[in-house]
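Morning F.,

Quick status update on the modeling queue. The single chain you submitted on Monday has been processed. Sequence for confirmation:
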Amino acid sequence: MKINFFKYLLSAAIIAGIGATAHAEEVPRSQQAISSFPALTSQNNPIPAEVTSTSQVESGAVARAPAPPLTDMWVYAVGSSDCGWESTAGLTVTTCDHGGSELRAAVLEIGYGSNRIAWMNGGILPSSAQYATTPVCVTGGYYTWPCTAGQTVVGWLVEYNLDGHQNGIFKYQNTSTNSPWNTMSVQISIL
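Structure tokens below.
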């Protein structure tokens, strides 16, 4: 009985030690991806929310409603070592001549999708190129992130690592999780 108690105690200590070590070494994904320029926030380029009842969405009153289908998407921003973040919502071509060791693209999608696919210069990007997915909510009539407790998630900011490319066409596509199962896409020419 004494031996079983010591085995139990040793097992618990090992598990606690492993958990503490793993927790201490964990680095948030956003810090792993970009170190040379600041995190992308909704303050960079505020986009008005096109919802029928902003007060319901902001208060969380629709929290138990079905997930909304995809209704809109933009290449929200393109970032690089040479230019930092450039707001690109609504643009088809960047204005900055991006380049350097780091290149990123951020897509803002409204609604819920379940089949994200991204391309750079015609080649499908591996799933590992998607380094961050941030929930988007509505605050004061604008799409914002990060969301605060109690807010309803209305979409996602999806960020891609395009390192190794200096320019080209970035394309993104997603299909709605539910009816009408529509597929939407957006692209931008990165100079």
